[in-house]
Amino acid sequence: QVQLVESGGGWVQAGGSLRLSCVASGGIFSSRIMGWFRQAPGKERELVVVVKRSGSDSSTYYGDFVKGRFTMSSDGAKNAMYLQMNNLKPEDTAVYYCATTQFPLATQDLGTPNNYEFWGQGTQVTVSS
Hints:
The protein is an all-beta fold. It has no helices and eleven strands.
């Protein structure tokens, strides 16, 4: 059974930075698709960033709101992926989730949360103004 565990959330002032981590059990980082989503109170879960691998190639897709502020990375040896978030804004306040799927997805389907079968428990990020 694949398990994902996030950490690194917390409180930060606007303009600050946080680094989220997601550690997986079950060796899922051979998965072709993995990423981060977030959900703010009263809002739908939305894509932050997703990486789609095809052979030795990979493509990274960011949510429109990211605008160069966030960077996703991974460490296969540690079964971990990371989300570096810089220049945080109050509107970035949300619960952040890592997710993955073992099934292929078309590019236009990468941003749909229901297409991912494995999720972490989430980590809260709060940005104050």
